[in-house]
Amino acid sequence: MIQLHPFLAILGLPPWSEFQPFVVSGLALGGVYALSGVGMVVLYRSTGVLNLSFGATGALGALVGWQLINSSGFGFWPAYIVCILLGGVVTLAYGLVFGRALAGRDPLVKATASLGLTLILLGVMDLLWTSNGGASRAIQFPTDNNSFSVGSVDVNYTEVIGLVVGIAITVVTGAFLRLTKLGTAMRAMASDREATAMLGVPVRLVEANAWFVSGCLSGVAGFLLADLVALDAATLTFLVISSVAAALIARLTSITVTFVAAIVIGVVDAMATPIQSLTNYRDMTPFVLAAVALLVLNRRRVISVSRTGI
After folding, report:
1. How far apart are CA 36 and CA 30, in angstroms?
2. Nearest to 38 by CA among 293, 208, 285, 253
3. In a domain, 11, yes or no
4. Which of 1, 15, 40, 261 has its CA 20 to 30 A from that of 239?
5. Burial class of residue 97 in the structure, from the number of CB atoms within 10 Å of its CB (0-12 exposed, 13-18 middle, 19+ buried)
6. Is residue 218 over pLDDT 80?
7. SS3 category, 183
8. What is the pTM of this model?
9. Count of domains for the chain
10. Does the residue 289 lie in any domain?
11. What pLDDT, in 10s, does the model give residues 11-43?
């Protein structure tokens, strides 16, 4: 087996043992980024809207869930269900109110409009849960205290849940889009909305389902990230950047590529933590990886087109 320690030492990097825990946390975060990215891709393929309020919606659900657990006597899992449904309802309400008006607008206008919802939700969260005492707020899954060892690394079951849920959402969504009538209608709308409507597909109903499902996924992601990262409105809101980057790498079309890209972003971001010279630049990881991937993909496309003589 190749020993990494000499190579890392030559490069001035910490020993491999210091990276191992971050690989685990990166896989968990990547799984959550993946399910968020899949939710964005499904909504975009159905409505043409890149929902930049995804993170804020999940943050609101997580804070409501925390409030229910700590002040209303709710159990953990009932509060999680409320968080998921709240995400679905908020996103569906936005889609019902603004979806028709945005249907014929430019994609940039649609994405920018969702930023308005982000600002509204951030304002609501700041009003109801001020920054005072924010450090004392935390959501802990019941699985946090249960762990197992992989080599010298302790892995808790919440981290496993983050990765497994991301894989499950990707697989189930792929099967749903291919094997169900509603999924077929969503794929058809992605190709030609007007032609799909002329074929008798209830476009508004399909869009409403896409908005609701995407919102529910934001609730799933928000609650998980509140445990894996922090229960902070701003932090959870802007973690959506990693999911957006994964979706853009997949050109907002392929959920499989979205999953792979999200995992890579999560692992690379986490593994930059023990490297002191890179720690302060970790937030750039999604942008850098997305830019590199898009440049490579565009270059391949240009070469392919030039070879065909088009």
Report:
1. 10
2. 253
3. no
4. 15
5. exposed
6. yes
7. helix
8. 0.86
9. 1
10. yes
11. 456 666 777 888 889 999 999 999 999 999 989
Domain that holds residue 186: 19-131+154-308
Does some domain include residue 144? no
pLDDT at 2: 46
Helix or strand (DSSP H, E) at 268: helix 255-271
Distances (CA, A) of 50 to 36, 258, 290: 12, 14, 16
Query: What is the distance in angstroms between the CA of the first residue and the CA of the last residue of the chain?
Result: 48
Q: What is the pLDDT of residues 131-186, one digit of tens each?
A: 555 556 788 898 888 888 877 788 889 999 999 999 999 999 989 888 888 777 77
Task: Say if residues 44 and 52 touch (Cβ distance below 8 Å).
Answer: no
Distance CA 94, CA 97 (A): 5
What tokens were used for 267? Answer: 């692992």
Let me know if residue 56 belongs to a domain. Answer: yes
| CA pair distance 197, 280, nearest whole angstrom | 49
